[in-house]
Amino acid sequence: MSIQKPSIPKGTRDFGQKEMARRNYIFNTIRDVFRTYGYQEIQTPAQENLSTLMGKYGEEGDKLLFRILNSGDAFADVDFQKPLVSQVCEKGLRYDLTVPFARYVVQHQNEISFPFKRFQIQPVWRADRPQKGRYREFYQCDVDVIGSRSQVNELELVQMVDAVFGKLGVRVAIKINNRKVLTGFAEIAGAPDKVVDITVAIDKLDKIGLDNVKAEMAEKGLSADGIAVIEQILSLSGSFEEKLAAMRGLFNGGSASAVVSEIGLKGLDELEELFGLIGAAGVSAPVEMDLSLARGLNYYTGAIFEVKALDWEIGSICGGGRYDNLTGIFGLPDLSGVGISFGADRIYDVLTGLDLYPAGLESATTLLFAVMGADELRYVLPVAKSLREAGVAVEVYPEPSKLKKQFDYADKKTIPFISINGSNEIEAGTVNIKNLVSGEQKAFAASDLSSILEFLK
To answer: Domain 172-310 carries which CATH code?
Structure first.
């Protein structure tokens, strides 16, 4: 009888020691930047009630929710004359961290202070088709502030993006638009009731091209004149100031429809204020207004962001935006928030592809004590203890073995230092340490901890 080889579900991955060292480097870099802006960490459960999740991500998003079968015999009391899913599935895996965050704020509103600044680094799940850079289980690193409408919050998001990718050594472009501007698109296109259809189509521009976007909008009932107006907008080029002036003209009745869009003009005012703050703050990464940026989540109401790596093709590695009433769906209206999510898995792929991880990152151990025999083992144990108490990562080889085997072990684990001690070192009260990178070797008094620490730097 053959034994089937074990496997994992498609769209998921195992992470070994090397991968975890790299992932923790990303998480710690992001976490450190978040904290410098006054954000503190929370966590929410992997599963939420489906009533919390459904209807928050649009029709397409709802299709990607992983539903959890009720525990026990879920089908025991099913009425097959009624919809099946609602009877056997009451919970689902979280799709993102923003909706659970909104639920958390409402549930704990009497325990927190506003503006409430939080970050989360946790996995999310989407029943998507696995492909390069797209997984069914992946981590998000979210940072949000809720309870303030000030665009200083949007500025801080841009600054944190700039700081994180600056520390990681990744060149990025930060793209910004505003959902009020997209609503203005629909108004001057003569289709104010089709803003969702328009944004869903525009959001696919990079993937399917302009002709297919136009075809999709036509299928949704937009007129040829309306599609022509949107095409005109998507074709605008030039500096921020030039795009802003052109858009103001269109929203002030300058389009073929001669419609004035007040909400579109308000969106432009917000963009002008935000870009002014960004200019004053001295952000290093290039920041541009991208009128094709739509971010296909229905809860965004203001500024929207997307970040792309300039030197590695992988799509968006960071994105987010302003939401004015996300908590309203849970009974706490008019509480505005804004946030952004770092796609840790895509960032991992970018750093791997560009070979940007620091040297020595994957070496968890600094010093290996080789073991020649029982006496030598007992001799080095107190030294190892002292070094560990001083913060040095130390391993003691678990059993006497040939030196070649122990050197091979150190090599495979990229351990930079090894200590080999025999009867001579025991008699002299010293420890012998070798730098496996440079080849330098020194003997120290076993009690001279400061000298040993200096050598291990």
So the answer is: 3.30.930.10
